[in-house]
Design brief:
By secondary structure, the protein is α+β, with helices and mostly antiparallel strands. It has helices at about 5, 15-40, 45-70, 75-90, 90-105, 160, 190-220, 255-270; strands at about 115-120, 120-130, 130-140, 145-155, 165, 175-180, 230-235, 240-250.
Length: about 290
């Protein structure tokens, strides 16, 4: 092939042939991958096509290796058997990561686009490789589940070591809640009405959308029929009346939704003509008598 038999010793010819095939295969795969954005505009489809091209190229190289070394397959098997124990010990983390990749691919732990917490890192999965999962991190010094700009690569072996939290898998909604302190002496019935209306006007549509996904989840798992509509509860302490708002929100819209609900509450409180007043902690310093 291409004069390799005359220029390369016989014992090295299979390696030269395999190297040439691998070089040409990965070169063509790289060219094909770079042309995908010109053919497809959708980002997710581009990602899947590039992954398919890479996987196909890897398969071609493995197939070529089997064919090239087919005659010496017995000798190769004996050599691998002798070195197997040492290789397994030295590459145990790599082997665990490959096993994790298989589990992720077949077990549905997560997929690109999901928001997860893996290995103590929270963010959106932007790539799932054979050894590592690449995550665009959220949080840290940035509040509200927003990107902080760091790209983190986590070994796939972590799926066997720690829990995998998926924020957007089969149920792409979260329950969020926050408290609103109201001064004693305020009209607590009107205050509750203001909070309920603020939730319903902002997130009632999301609650309706979440019902269909929750029903699918109930059909698959043993779950109760949870309340997906906005809920307001009240407790009393010695400082103020504390209302807690609880509602369903899309997993990427928690901060934006809380902002909208808070703005609606403030508008209604200001329009209540003093019947409802928000409370705040105060500190009184008393000077002892001389």
């Amino acid at each position: 092939m291409f004069g390799l038999e005359r220029s390369i010793p016989v014992e090295y010819q299979p390696f030269a042939v395999l190297g040439a095939i691998a070089f040409l295969t990965f070169l063509l795969a790289r060219l094909a991958g770079s042309s995908v954005p010109r053919l497809v505009s959708d980002n997710e489809t581009q990602y899947r096509l590039r992954k398919a091209i890479s996987s196909f190229a890897f398969f071609i190289v493995v197939l070529a290796a089997v064919i090239v070394f087919g005659r010496n397959i017995t000798g190769v098997g004996v050599a691998l058997g002798v070195a197997g124990a040492g290789i397994a010990f030295a590459l145990q983390e790599v082997i665990a990561s490959i096993a994790g990749w298989i589990a992720i691919s077949l077990g549905g732990f997560y997929r690109p686009g999901d928001r997860v917490q893996l290995g103590g890192i929270t963010g959106d999965v932007i790539d799932v490789g054979v050894l590592r999962t690449t995550i665009m991190e959220t949080g840290g010094w940035v509040k509200g589940d927003l990107y902080n700009g760091r790209i983190v690569r986590v070994a796939n072996s972590f799926v066997f070591k720690e829990p995998v939290y998926n924020y957007s898998g089969e149920f792409p909604f979260l329950w969020d809640e926050f408290t609103v302190p109201v001064r004693h002496g305020s009209d607590h019935k009107l205050a509750r009405e203001i909070l309920v209306n603020a939730c319903e006007e902002t997130v009632a549509t999301l609650s309706s959308d979440a019902k269909a996904d929750w029903e699918k989840l109930r059909n698959r798992y043993r779950l109760e029929d949870a309340n997906l509509m906005p809920m307001v509860t009240m407790t009393i302490n010695d400082n103020w009346i504390e209302f807690t708002l609880r509602y369903v929100v899309e997993y990427k819209q928690r901060r934006v939704t809380r902002d909208r609900v808070s703005a609606r509450i403030l508008e209604s409180v200001q329009a209540s003509d003093g019947r409802v007043e928000l409370a705040s902690a105060t500190l009184e310093i008393v000077h002892p008598d001389a």
